Recover the amino acids of this structure.
């Protein structure tokens, strides 16, 4: 118990922010998947990159949440450690990179699969409050070492 | 012709959203549920879990850094044991205890094991457990 408390990051954000961002991500990725638009998937890739490096509270979607959505929400602030959504953004980024690479090299099947996985993860997060880090991180560690 | 193109462009999204919905419903239903286990496994000791066992029961919580419900689970379980002198809560960082994680087949966080007085697992919850279910599981341990 002490180990975790020491490692605990001090950055806490409103959990409703990443969930709102996930909902927008669903629409962007859905549109990208149907239209096979290089612009849309690259745009989402850039958003994932900001979320994975600077943090999910600095993406354009988070800005929309802060300026338009949050002032209208009646419920209380829901605290969340920034690390789990940051991890999810990093996973999304890897899928987006694969998707862009697929599209640029004419591998539409690769594009469709990678975008499909990213869409599924964003949808699960938005609709079911899915915690990607909870489900995937330990399995990755177990597989690696 | 136009129809085939339409099906072709919308088929992937239908498959993705359909299977994600099915998985999400299962996820929502299964997470947090305490599953009773037949008492057959080997006993865990204080030195293995890195904390004292409770005289009646111990709640062993596995957590990781990229886990939102781990914090809520910790708060809940600390709250539960605060009123029970014979039950203890021990939190283990899954990442730094991979050997134990493999041995106990922990696949995601938070996972909470319920140990009886001798340290044998009698149940486990994957995901944040519900308060009343934790109390019910503890009440079943004599």
């Amino acid at each position: 118990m002490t180990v975790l408390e020491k490692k605990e990051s001090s950055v806490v954000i409103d959990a409703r922010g990443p969930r709102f961002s996930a909902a927008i991500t669903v629409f962007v990725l859905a549109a990208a998947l149907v239209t096979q638009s290089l612009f849309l998937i690259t745009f989402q890739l850039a958003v994932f990159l900001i979320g994975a490096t600077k943090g999910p509270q600095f993406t354009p979607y988070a800005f929309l949440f802060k300026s338009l959505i949050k002032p209208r929400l009646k419920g209380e602030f829901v605290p969340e450690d920034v690390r789990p959504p940051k991890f999810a953004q990093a996973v999304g980024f890897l899928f987006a990179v694969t998707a862009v690479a697929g599209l640029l090299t004419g591998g539409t099947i690769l594009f469709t699969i990678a975008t499909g996985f990213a869409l599924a993860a964003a949808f699960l997060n938005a609709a079911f409050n899915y915690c990607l880090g909870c489900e995937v991180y330990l399995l990755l560690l177990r597989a690696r070492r | 012709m136009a129809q085939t193109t339409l099906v072709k462009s919308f088929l992937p999204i239908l498959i993705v959203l359909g299977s994600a919905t099915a998985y999400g419903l299962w996820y929502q239903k299964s997470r947090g549920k305490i599953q009773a286990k037949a008492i057959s496994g080997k006993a865990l000791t204080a030195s293995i879990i890195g904390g004292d066992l409770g005289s009646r029961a111990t709640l062993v919580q596995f957590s990781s850094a990229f886990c939102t419900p781990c914090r809520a689970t910790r708060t809940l379980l600390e709250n539960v044991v605060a009123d029970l002198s014979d039950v203890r809560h021990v939190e283990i960082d899954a990442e730094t205890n991979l050997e134990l994680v493999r041995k106990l087949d922990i696949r995601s966080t938070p996972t909470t094991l319920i140990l009886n007085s001798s340290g044998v697992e009698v149940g486990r919850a994957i995901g944040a457990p519900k308060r009343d279910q934790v109390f019910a599981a503890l009440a079943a341990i004599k």
In short: Chain A has one domain: 12-144. The first helix of chain A runs from residue 2 to 7.
